[in-house]
Amino acid sequence: MLKSRGCFNFKLNFNCNCNRRPLVVRTPFRNSLIRGSLYRPFSTDIENLKRQSDNQESDNSASATGVIDKGSNEVLLYYSFTNSRSFIKPYISRFIPSKWTDDELRAKVENVSSPLPDNSVITELVSLPRDSGAFVKFKYPPGLSARDFVKDVRENVNKHDEGGKFFENAFTRALLNSVWNSSTQVYSVKGVPWIEDLRRFPSAKLGIKYEGKPLTEEELYVLFRRYGLIDDIKIDAGEAFILFHAVRSAICAKHCITGMQLNHDETTIHIRYVPIKKTNFLIDLVASHTKIALPILLALLATFAVLIFDPIREWFIQLKITRSAHKFEQYRENKWFKLVYVPYMTLADAVTSSYDYIGNQLQDVAGTRDGEKHMGSGGFGGGGEDDGTSLQEKRLESNMFWRERLEKSKELKLWIMENTDTFIIVKGPQGSGKEEFVMDHTLIPDSRLNRKVLVVDCDELSKARSENNLIAKTASQLGYFPVFTWTNSISQFVDLGVQGLTGQKSGLSESKETQIKNMFSLATQAIRRITDADYKRYKTGVEKRNRKLKQEDEKIEVRSQEEFLSQHPESKPIIVIKKFARKADVSSNDFVFPLIADWASGLIQNNTAHVIFTTSDVGSLQHLTESLPNRVFKNIPLSDASIASSKQYIADALKLKDTFEIDDCIAPLGGRMLDLQAFIRRIKSGENPPQAVNEMVNQAAELISTFFLHEHKFSNDDSNWNPSQVWLIMKLLSGSDSISYDTLIKSPLFKKSKETLDTLTTLEKYDLITLKRDKGVLNVIETGRPLFKAAFENIISDVRIWKLYETEYLSNLIALEIAKITKLESELTNIFKIGKVDGRIDYLSKKIEQSNQKILDYEKEINDIAEFKGESKRQSFLGIF
User: Fold this and answer.
1) Domains in the chain, please, with CATH?
2) 768/760 Cα distance (integer angstroms)
3) Using CB atoms within 10 A as the burial measure, which of 87, 414, 541, 653 is most buried?
4) 655: exposed, middle or buried (C-beta count within 10 Å: 0-12, 13-18, 19+)?
5) What sections of 549-591 are H helices per DSSP?
6) pLDDT value at position 828?
7) Phi and psi at residue 73, to the nearest 5°
8) Cα angle value 96/98/100 (rounded, 5°)
9) Secondary structure in 3-state letters for 549-581
10) Where are the residues of the annotated region Disordered (predicted)?
C-alpha cells in the first residue's frame, strides 16, 4: 500500500468460510495514490453543497453550517472528555452555557495532548457540550504524516490519563471506569462530521443508512469496534443498527464515521441516534397479568402510604394526649407575647378585614379578668351581661354548687391512683354536669392527672351525617392527622374499575367501620408508646443510678413494665369518653358505640390507660358489659343538686343578700345545672325572677309539645312512641313526683313487654323521663328534668291543648278496644264453624260486652270534652302569667 500526502486506501480480507467481497475503505484525505495509479481529488455531496452555500456568506463557521472545513496538512480529531451518563444533561444543554470557555477548552486540549510536534498548532476548535466532547483541527508539520501525528497525539493523551490515575490496581480502575469514566479519549475523524443541535439526543443505539451498497455485519464490526464494546448488530433492508454497550462509544463512533465513503466511493455511511425503547417490566406485568399484578400493586401502594403516614399520625395523637398542642395557652397572658402579637393581629385584621377570636380575646384580657364587674350591682336586670358564665361564676360553681360532689370527686381520684381496674362510669341525667365534674373539678386541678388526657366526645360522632364527616370528626377527636377523606370517593371508583378489569375487588376501598377501627387501633399504639416512654425514662434513670453506686452498695432492682405501671398510675393516660349512649342519632353510626367500648376494654385489659365514661343513657351500659364481661364496673352516680345548694348558688352568682325573691323560683328549676345557668343569664339580661321562670317553663312546654306530642319519624327511626303514651305519662307525673312501673302498665297503651321498655328507654334518652331500677329491674318512673314537671302542668292547664290531646288519647283507647272486639268476634266465628259450644262462648261474650261498654264510656268522655265551654286556664304555676 502506497501512502501519499492526502489519503490512503486499504483492503481488509476476512478469514471466514463464507465468500465475502473485500472491504475497500477510502479515507477523506486528499490526493490518494493506490497501486501506482493517481486518483483525482474527490469531494462529497456535503462538501459541494457547502461550497455552493458559502458563496457570498460572511459566516461559514461550523456553528453556522454544521460542517468543518479542512485544508492541506490539517487533521481533524474528536476528543471525548467524560462518560456523560446524566440523562438530564442533553435536555438542558441548550439552555446552559458550556462549563469551559474556548480558551479553557483549548488549554485543556493542549494539556492532555502535550508534547505536540514542533510547528503543530490548533487551527479550529468546536465544542460539543451536549456530548461532553469537542472537534479539534490541528495543522501538523509538512515533514510529518497525518497518521504519525495522530499516533503521537493519542499516545500523549493516554500517558496523561495514566499519570493521573489514583488507583494502581487494574481491577479497581476497571470497576471505576465502568461506573464513571472521566479519562480523555481521542479519535481521528474519518468521515465528514455533521455538527447539529437538533433535539436528537445521544443514545447507545446507532442507525446506519447507506448511499450505495450496504455493508455486512463483519464489515460493520470492523468499522465500529474500535470505539467501544458492541452488544448487538442488526441488519435490515437498506439500514443497519448497532447497539453499543456505552453511550460514549456511540457518540464517538457517530462523530468519527458519519459521512465516510467506502468501496471506491460506492458506499457512503450516514449515522443517526436511535432512541432505545426500553421495556418497563412493571407496566408490562400490569398489562399482561392484570388480575395478579394490579391487586399486588395497590396493596404495595397502600403499604407504602401506611409506612409514611402512620408514624406521623401516631405522633399527632401523642401530641393531643400529652396536651403539648395547648402550650400556646400558657403564653397568652405573657406581656411580651401580647406586646408582639396584639399589634400584629391588629394590622392583620386591618388588612384582611377578618375577625380573629384569639386576637380579640388578648386585647380584651383586662375586661375578662374583671368579669365579676359585669355581673350586676345587686338588683335584677342591672348587669347587662350577655354571655353565660364568667370567671367569678366558675369560682362560685366550684365553691358552692360542687361542694356536694366533693367526696365523689375525691373518690374518683382515689380509684385512679389505686390503679386497679380503672374502668369508671359516671352516670347522671342530662345537664347534671358530668363532664364538668370529671374534667374541671377532678382531672384538670390535679397536676398529676392533667398531663395525659384524651377526651372523646361520642355526641360528635353520633351526629355525623356522612361517611367523610364521621371520619373527619373521629380524626379530630383522636388527633389523627393527616386524614384524607377525599380518598374514599377515589378508592371506590378505583375499586369499581379494578373489579371491571379483573373480576374481583382490589380491597383498596374500605368500609367506614374498618377505617374508624383502624383509627382507634393507631390511637392504642400511640397510648402504648406514651407509657413505654415513661418506662424507658424510669429504666434509664435506675441504670444510671446503679452505675454511680459502689460495688459494695446494693443495686436498685429494675421493675418490669407491668410493675412500673401498677405503681405509677400517673404514667398511664386518662381516656375520657363523653356522652356515651346506646344508639346514635344517625342509625348508620350505631357501630361506633360498641367499637369504642371494645377499644376501651382493650386499654384496660392491657393495663395501658385509665378509662372514664360519662353517660346519661342507662342502656349504654349493655355495650360495656358485652365488652368486659365478668367485671364489676366502678360507678359514680350524679344527681341534681339540693334546693339549698341551688338557692345559694344563684344568690352568690347574682350577689343577692336576701333570697326571698327567688325562693318561689327554685322549686321548678330543681338542681339541674343547665337550667340554673339559664335562669341566671335571664336575670342578668333584665328579666325579673318570676318572668324568667315562666319563660323557661313556656319554652320547655313548647319543646315537649313539638318534639313528643307530634306524629313524626326521625332519620334513625328512634321515635318509637306515640303522642297518647306521652300524654298519659305527662298526666300521671304532673300530679305526682313519680309513678311506679306497675301502675303504668295497667293502661291499655302500655303492656308488660319489650316494646314498652324500649319506648320508656327512648323517652329517657331524650330526657323526658328518668327510670329508676331496683336490682336491675325497672321500678319507678320520674320526670327527666325538674323543669319538665312544671312544663307538664303548663301544657295540661291549657284547655285547648288538653281537649286536643285528651280526645286523641281516648280515641286511641277506643281503637284498642275495637281491635280487641274484632279479635274476639273472629274467635267466636271459628267456634261456631266447628260447631263446638261450651263455656268459652260465654267468656268471649262477656269480654266483648266489657269492651263495648268501655267504648261507650270513652265516647261519652269525648262528647263531654267537646261540649266543655270553659275559658283557657293557661297560667303559670306561680299564678303569674
Assistant:
1) 1-64+198-278 (3.30.70.330), 73-189 (3.30.70), 283-324+404-502+516-548+557-639 (no CATH), 327-383 (no CATH), 701-867 (1.10.10)
2) 9
3) 653
4) middle
5) 561-567
6) 87
7) 55, 30
8) 150
9) CCCCCCCCCCCCHHHHHHHCHHHCCEEEEECCC
10) 368-389
Radius of gyration of the chain (CA): 48
**Which residues is 454 bridged to in the sheet?**
575
Contact 610, 573 (CB under 8 A): yes
CA distances from 711 to 706, 714, 725, 751, 788 (A): 9, 10, 12, 21, 20
Closest CA to 809 of 735, 732, 755: 732
Collapsing DSSP to helix, strand or coil, 647 comes out as helix
Residues 6+ apart with CB under 8 A from 631: 421, 423
Nearest to 422 by CA among 568, 574, 534, 532: 574
In order of 92, 160, 174, 201, 862, the CA distances from 88 in angstroms are 7, 29, 25, 10, 94
Q: How far is CA 269 from CA 28, 32, 211, 855, in A?
A: 13, 20, 7, 116
Pairwise CA distance, residues 230 & 857, whole Å: 113
The distance from CA 279 to its chain's CA centroid, rounded to whole angstroms, is 35
* φ, ψ of residue 36 in degrees (nearest 5): 80, -5
State how far the alpha carbon of 344 is from the alpha carbons of 10, 335, 347, 363, in Å: 87, 14, 5, 12
pLDDT tens digits, residue range 547-606? 888 887 888 889 999 999 988 999 999 999 999 998 888 889 999 999 999 999 999 999
Instruction: Pull the grid cell for residue 173.
Output: 480502575
Q: At what angle do helices 643-654 and 673-684 cross, to 10 degrees?
A: 30
Residue for grid cell 449515522: 271
Q: Among the residues of 180-327, which ranges form H helices?
A: 217-224, 247-257, 281-288, 290-321
What is the C-alpha separation between 191 and 180, in angstroms, rounded? 29
The C-alpha atoms of residue 791 and residue 749 are separated, in whole angstroms, by 23
Longest dimension (CA), the chain: 150
What integer pLDDT is reported at residue 16 of this predicted model?
Answer: 39
Residue 263 and residue 212 in contact, taking contact as beta carbons nearer than 8 Å: yes
C-beta neighbour count of 384 within 10 angstroms: 11
Query: How many helices and strands in the chain, by DSSP H and E?
Result: 34, 21
| CA gap 256, 772 in Å, rounded | 102
Q: Are 456 and 477 in contact (CB under 8 A)?
A: yes
At 773 the pLDDT is: 83
Closest CA to 709 of 764, 647, 763: 763
CB 408 within 8 A of CB 695: no
Cell of 827: 274467635
CA 171 to chain centre: 52
Q: Which ranges of the chain have pLDDT less than 70?
A: 1-66, 83-99, 161-182, 294, 298, 324-335, 337, 341, 344-345, 348-402, 486-509, 711-718, 835-838, 870-881
Output the 3-class SS for 346-365.
Answer: HHHHHHHCCCCHHHHHHHCH
Place of cell 392504642: 524
Distances (CA, A) of 512 to 364, 488, 519: 44, 9, 11
Residues 595, 520: contact at Cβ < 8 Å?
A: yes
Q: What burial letters (b/e) apply to 42-57, b meaning 16+ CB within 10 Å?
A: eebebbeebeeeeeee
Which residue's entry shows cell 399482561? 288
Strand 574-578 relative to strand 610-615: parallel, antiparallel, unpaired?
parallel
Helix/strand/coil for 486: helix
Cell numbers for 716: 334513625
Q: Which residue has the cell 291543648?
A: 801
C-alpha to C-alpha distance for 644 and 649, rounded to whole angstroms: 9
Give the strands of the sheet with 769-774, arranged side by side. 738-740, 777-783, 769-774
